[in-house]
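Ticket #4471: structure output looks truncated?

Reporter: J.K.
Steps to reproduce: submitted the chain below (112 residues) through the standard prediction queue, then opened the result file.
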Amino acid sequence: QVQFVESGGGLVQPGGSLRLSCVGSGFTFSDHALSWVRQAPGKGLQWLGAINSKGEAPSYAASVKGRFTISRDNAKNTLYLQMDNLKPDDTAVYYCAKGAQRGQGTQVTVSS
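Returned output as attached by the reporter:
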């Protein structure tokens, strides 16, 4: 079955950076566009961005555009989210997703 394992979260100070990784399995990774979404405490899922199957033309939500970068390595079945200039409002559990399917997530906390 489809599985995603996210990693790379943690505690970071405002203005800092983190790089999240997501390893996918149970499907042909290189055939599918993938997304990153997040869920902040007490809020719903927020779409952050997506990338096509070839790793081209990533698109981003306005709230993260210019700060977050999505990339992928199909040889490693891995999706990445580079997050720079992090803000307290970026505190959330981050998930990679294929449609409605997503992993367990990784916690990102931005705090001084």
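Triage note (M.O.): checked the attachment and the full token line is present. The mean pLDDT is 97.
Status: closed, working as intended.
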